[in-house]
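Hi Q.,

Before the meeting this afternoon, I wanted you to have the shikimate-3-phosphate prediction in hand. No need to reply - just skim if you have a minute. The sequence and ligand are here:
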Amino acid sequence: MKNIILIGFMGAGKSTIASDIATRKSCVLKELDGLIVEKAGKSIRSIFSDEGESAFRDMETSVLQSLSSLDQVVISTGGGIVGRSENWELMRKTGTIVYLRACWETLAQRICGSEERPLADDLEKAKLLFEKRKPLYEMADLVVDTDGRTPEEVVSDILSQVTGR
Ligand code: S3P
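Predicted structure with the ligand bound:
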């Protein structure tokens, strides 16, 4: 199976879908945010507050780079991965990029009150960020709508389009 990279805004369900794909295809799951936390030895919120967002973005790119030579993996990214063109180059050479698309109402419900997401503290700002990023997410190889669908349906849809079954 070609590597699958899931992108989408916070609350799109990237972690859940990635984990389900890994289970269904018996492949390895790589969680970018989890790897960053491991590497930094602190939470994403602490990285943002101690070192600033740009330091977090540097770590994000470097972890993404470290995954680019792997095979048979499904990668769950953080919502901001689409912001750097360098990340696009890395993602394109790593695998098939799949955008999990959801409407703002769905996303807002899921991220509202989120402890781990510094960029979701202010929902008005988060909405603007979502609007700004939308065209970037749409640059994925595959766009999969998730609103009103179960994770099973979304996973089947992705796998049928990426692997042909
Ligand atoms: C971010 C999304 C988060 C995490 C960080 C920044 C963003 O990941 O990487 O808080 O810029 O959208 P999730 O999309 O998994 O919440």
